Amino acid sequence: MGSRRKARESAMQLLYQYEFARQPIDELFETYWQHLRPNADESVRRYATRLVTGALEHLEEIDRIISEHAIHWRLPRMASVDRNILRIAVYEMLYEPETPKVVVIDEAIEIARRYSTYEATQFINGLLDAIRRDLEGGSPPGRRWTGTHGS
Length: 151
What we know:
Helix content is about 70%, strand content about 0%. The chain is mainly alpha-helical.
């Protein structure tokens, strides 16, 4: 597994913990890297930290974009793992332009395969692809993903 995927997985886990623990993010980083991933490469730590801090900094915008594209699914109803995979991916699509959007989507699907359900991978794929098309100007703004989600 590549260092970027490890960083994305760590970022998803950190956001998941942040949602429930609501402890200061610096304390969460310290605990996570010391106790859960003490042997993580520095590049993994740096990129995961960048993804988490960026996603949290732009959380309102990211959640709005996800919500605009997820018909029949409010963010609080989504499984936390799925919601945070989406948040990391949308952050990357918006603010990490050196990574192609299709790569971001593929990585999100692979992480969902590992941590969520088959139905969630389909939901995440469809939702992120709709967002990608909007960002690239290939569909009308606010196009909604009407797929189902089994989580």
